[in-house]
Amino acid sequence: MKLKFLGSGTSQGVPVIGCHCEVCSSKDPKDNRFRSSALISTDSGKKILIDCGPDFRIQMLNNNEDNVDAVLLTHEHNDHVIGLDDLRPVIFRSKKNMALYCNKRVGAEVKNRFPYAFADVKYPGAPSFDLHEIEGNFNLFDTEIIPVNVMHYKIPILGFKFKNLAYITDASFISEVEKEKLQNLDYLILNCIRKEELHPAHFILPQVLELFEELQPKKLYLTHISHHLGTHAETESELPENVHLAYDGLELEF
Q1: Residues contacting residue 176 through CB under 8 Å, at least 6 positions apart
Q2: What is the pLDDT of residue 206?
Q3: pLDDT by residue (tens digit) across 5-22?
Q4: Which of 66, 80, 175, 186 stands 20 to 30 A from 209 (CA)?
Q5: What phi and psi, each to the nearest 5 degrees, are found at residue 71?
Q6: Which residues, at least 6 apart from 24, have a Cβ–Cβ distance to it below 8 Å?
Q7: Which residues contact 132 (CB under 8 A, 6 or more apart)?
Q8: Which SUPFAM superfamilies match (predicted)?
Q9: Which pLDDT belongs to residue 203?
Q10: What is each CA distance from 87 to 18, 22, 68, in whole angstroms?
Q11: What kind and span of H or E run contains 106?
């Protein structure tokens, strides 16, 4: 299986509109970060999208990707769901509804934000979705998917584990029970918004490094990165061995 980072940035992306800091002015393409999303390629060649934010269309085009077979949604914030309408070309080509997997609360929000996709009589050209509520472990395209329950400030959201890789974005707390799912991983992917100053809804670098020491994955990749973390090259050079910054287009095989 493979995971490709379609985006590794926060809700504003990097560069931030109107910002001229060192990161936002950087010429290094690794400092250009679309909103966080990832694409899983299964052993059978199926494509599972994790989150579908406002950059989805250009992310797919930039990565020469042309298909999605199902979508996993971590939570309902706009930087993770507002691109769902751009799945229309994939839906039209396949001539079937796109399967969305999420918790019950997120499903209700998707219906609220895209009511035309669920209308009894659809407007011509509207997308069409099949909502599937995640209640525990499930199989998709012969792949076991294990939800990881984490907290994003006061909102319970989902991360996902596939084989020995776990993808967690927008977390600020992981319970001891859920940490049991994150033992002995080859790859742990965690959000890290900045180096200093605690954030109520996101991990910062010292917290992520503490989790790395506690959970001991073979490799840790940081995602959902803001311009406050510093340039890719400088920050990468400061990290411990086997801790890395993700960047858009990076692919991991597991």
Answers
A1: none
A2: 98
A3: 999 999 999 999 999 999
A4: 80
A5: -125, 135
A6: 14, 15, 16, 31, 227
A7: 99, 100, 101, 102
A8: Metallo-hydrolase/oxidoreductase (SSF56281)
A9: 98
A10: 30, 34, 8
A11: helix 104-113
Token pair for 141: 């395209």
Average pLDDT value for the chain: 98
Direct distance between the N- and C-terminal alpha carbons of the chain, in angstroms, rounded to an integer = 5
Peptide bond into 15 cis (omega under 30): yes
Cα gap 191→208, rounded to integer Å: 8
Element (H, E) at 3: strand 2-7
Q: How open is the CA angle 61-161-36, to the nearest 5 degrees?
A: 35
- C-alpha–C-alpha distance, residues 35 and 32, integer Å: 10
**Residue 172 is encoded by which pair of tokens?**
């600020």
Q: Which two tokens stand for residue 40?
A: 């899983």
In the predicted model, what is the mean pLDDT of residues 142-166? 98
Instruction: Provide the 8-state DSSP code for 153.
Output: T
Residue carrying the six token digits 């965690």: 190
State which amino acid sits at residue 193.
I
Query: Which tens digits make up the pLDDT trace of 192-215?
Result: 999 999 999 999 999 999 999 999
Q: State what percent of residues in the chain have pLDDT above 70.
A: 100
Question: pTM of this prediction?
Answer: 0.98
The encoded tokens of residue 19 equal 């910002």
Q: Determine the length of the chain.
A: 254
Instruction: List CB contacts of 37: < 8 A, sequence separation 6 or more.
Output: 5, 6, 7, 49, 50, 51, 52, 53, 55, 56, 59, 80
Q: How many Å apart are CA 13 and CA 226, to the nearest integer?
A: 7
pLDDT range class, residue 107, cuts 50, 70, 90: very high
Contact assessment for residue 253 and residue 164, using Cβ atoms and an 8 Å cutoff: no
